[in-house]
């Protein structure tokens, strides 16, 4: 059993993930030494109350940043990279906001920067995009990259819970935080999609270029009605090339059951990468959990000790396309009288919106119209909805939710 | 646009995959040069009628072996590795049969050996196991690693086709070869599972240690009856640690719909890797196609040009466990008279086999008993089936098919 060259890890932050990582390093040190000839151990640990960063940096061969947030994480990671020390970070906010600066520091000193744990839990989305698909032309990435919202939506669909009830349940089980804003508002998913977009397209994409919506306004009725069209609701992140630019968005969307993301349930995450030559690759797995995230960090550590290269050249600025084509589900409550349908159809036609599926049901006092549209420019669709909302016979505000059509089949 | 250092590729074999690969190299040369600083181009090409291997080896920086089969591929790959040239191979027969010898040659000269395209089409199963999970303790790998059989089984389930009809359709569409034995007999999947097992467990596993069955004897009735239990039939490869040894097998199996492989349809492939710390990762994508396989080869090329290391140490011999625990589906045609069920139940009980689900249906002349068993040692189950088959009231031969239980849920 070779001892291997001793490698000291400087651990910044020792919460759930940090504790699990320290334990994993100890448990797997023999196996890693056999594999890489290097034996890692935790050297210094920095917490909010103990440790000195300068001393830890000086004493460590590799820095693992698990503090989260922008400050002081940004400063620590930059200083480590500038000092030529390989860095592993699980910090999606940092990489999605200051990616260009971090990559430049990594390229300048040659110190690799790894951050698999920042996106999609145990799913090796970053490694697959940066290595397996490095030579490919990626057209689009779809992801369910937030486990909290996927858990809530799964519970709403399976148990008929309201949004508030499902959120409460997620909080009780530890899947959602006391302040769930970052998760349910879509911001967490947006940060992860910014990172995936940057790597998939080789462009300088940052968090503030991602348009996002959350799931706070989704009702169990939306999910129940859409079931008539066999649709499943997910919070989906999309990064795609459009007309020479790109679009990176996060939004609640209905999926057809044959879509690779439609069967991703509970707190699982999944990422689908589409490229002409490969068609598509889908990866799925647990989206959260201390030991799962720590495992992703450990994978990065083994790569560093094995000598897998990971510095990135300068990326061109991204041109963001604002108005994209989407399919929509539209739900209207209208008075049940002749001529209503014709006026709705006329409003849609006025804006070049065409209907793919249509369903009308009478209720005691009114009628419910539920439609799925063919893909159309979102500006056109929303103009049509505004016109429809102003019609005198339309009751409650129209409910419009995007639909992702099946792209590939088998 | 930097030219990059010129890299000459020696291409052995120029069939569908070789042609697609040559085209991809040309199309992506600029992008690869930007990424790696090295510009690849096809130098010599060896076919059965043209080219000289010694000359190509001397003139090339990287060898890409797409000949298939053991001879002369083995000789060429060994000579290239011994000459210190990095090798990419898509040859599952070669790697699953002569893995130990190839890895030793690679380790001795330091020339890396890559073979992502040998297993599971575009799915980066090998990279994920060898890199992301290099530090993890993998307990089990499940895979649908043969697209032809998955296509046939999907068509039998969806269209009610017989096995022969579905095979004919697969042949007409180019998914199955004129002689489909390697695919439908399970041998192709067995070779791929041997490779996955070797890498996942770090043990010296070879093709001849894999027990495999194919799908030739599956009937559309098996699939239809099992639907009553909500089961889906797939040809599944399993590599798992058991009692200090391992078991690597390929067999037709019923899956519960919540299993990550149950929703893999048509000619798609999928691989699920289970490890305590990560829980599970599932990857899916197209299992075949010239350009898809060529893309996997291109991914390996980019890794070589980037300097991703890939030599492997000596692996310990694998201890193969012969008798494993499995759950089974059992279908019996029996006379419809009192006492039958008691005798069947007694035979099962004699061998410690216990029933999980049971369904009985009368037919005009007889009764059909369909059961799903709890997991039990296969030797016990088959002893019970032999006892049942000998009972005087049992008609047609019992149909027994393995069932894979849901392990994880969400």
Describe the structure.
The structure is a homodimer of 410-residue chains. Chain A is built from 13 helices and 18 strands. With 410 residues, the first copy, chain A, is of the alpha/beta class. Chain A folds into 3 domains: 5-118, 3-Layer(aba) Sandwich (Rossmann fold); 125-286, Dihydrodipicolinate Reductase, domain 2, CATH 3.30.360.10; 325-404, ACT domain (Alpha-Beta Plaits). In chain A, helix 3 links the parallel strand 3 and strand 4. In chain A, helix 3 (73-82) packs parallel to helix 4 (92-109) and helix 6 (147-159) crosses helix 7 (163-172). Chain A is elongated, with a radius of gyration of 24 Å. The interface between A and B is large, with 56 and 55 residues. Strand 12 (279-286) of chain A pairs antiparallel with strand 12 (279-286) of chain B.
User: What does the overall shape of chain A look like?
Assistant: elongated
Instruction: Indicate the CATH architecture of the largest domain in chain A.
Output: 2-Layer Sandwich
User: How many helical elements of chain A?
Assistant: 13
Average pLDDT metric of chain A: 94
Uncertain stretches of chain A: none
Number of strands of chain A: 18
**Greatest interface and its participating residue counts:** A-B, 56 and 55 residues
End-to-end gap of chain A: 48 Å
The third-level CATH topology of the largest domain in chain A is Dihydrodipicolinate Reductase, domain 2
Portion in helices of chain A: 25-40%
Q: In this structure, how is the largest beta sheet of chain A organized?
A: 11 strands, mixed
Rg of chain A: 24 Å
Percent of residues of chain A in beta strands? 25-35%
């Amino acid at each position: 059993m070779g001892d291997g060259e001793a490698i000291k890890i400087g651990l910044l932050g020792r919460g759930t993930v940090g504790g699990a990582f320290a334990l994993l390093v100890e448990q797997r040190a023999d196996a890693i030494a056999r594999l890489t000839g290097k034996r890692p151990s935790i050297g210094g640990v920095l917490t909010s109350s103990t440790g000195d960063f300068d001393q830890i940096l000086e004493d460590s061969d590799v820095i693992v940043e698990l503090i989260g947030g922008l400050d002081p994480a940004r400063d620590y990671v930059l200083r480590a990279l500038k000092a030529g020390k390989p860095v592993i970070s699980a910090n999606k906010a940092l990489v999605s906001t200051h990616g260009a600066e971090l990559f430049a520091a990594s390229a300048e000193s040659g110190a690799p920067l790894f951050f698999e744990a920042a996106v999609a839990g145990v799913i090796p989305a970053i490694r697959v995009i940066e290595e397996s698909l490095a030579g490919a032309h990626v057209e689009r990435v779809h992801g369910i990259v937030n486990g909290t919202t996927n858990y809530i939506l799964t519970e709403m669909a399976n148990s008929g819970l309201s949004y508030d009830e499902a959120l409460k349940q997620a909080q009780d089980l530890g899947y959602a935080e006391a302040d769930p804003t970052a998760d349910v508002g879509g911001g967490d998913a947006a940060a992860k999609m910014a990172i995936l977009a940057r790597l998939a397209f080789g462009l300088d994409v940052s968090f503030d270029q991602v348009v996002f919506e959350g799931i706070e306004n989704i009702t169990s009725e939306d999910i129940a009605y859409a079931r008539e069209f066999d649709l499943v609701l997910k919070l989906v992140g999309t990064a795609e090339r459009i007309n020479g630019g790109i679009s990176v968005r996060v939004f609640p969307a209905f999926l057809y059951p044959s879509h690779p993301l439609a069967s991703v349930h509970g707190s699982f995450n999944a990422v689908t990468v589409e490229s002409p030559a490969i068609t598509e690759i889908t990866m799925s797995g647990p989206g959260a959990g201390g030991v799962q995230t720590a495992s992703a960090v450990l994978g990065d550590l083994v790569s560093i000790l094995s000598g897998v290269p990971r510095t990135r050249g300068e990326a061109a600025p991204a041109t963001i396309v604002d108005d994209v084509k989407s399919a929509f589900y539209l739900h209207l409550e209208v008075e049940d009288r002749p001529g209503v349908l014709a006026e709705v159809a006329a409003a849609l036609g006025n804006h070049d919106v065409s209907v793919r599926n249509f369903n009308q049901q009478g209720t005691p006092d009114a009628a419910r119209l539920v439609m799925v549209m063919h893909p159309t420019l979102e500006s056109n669709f929303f103009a049509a909805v505004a016109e429809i909302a102003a019609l005198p016979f339309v009751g409650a505000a129209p409910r419009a939710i995007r639909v992702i059509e099946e792209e590939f089949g088998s």
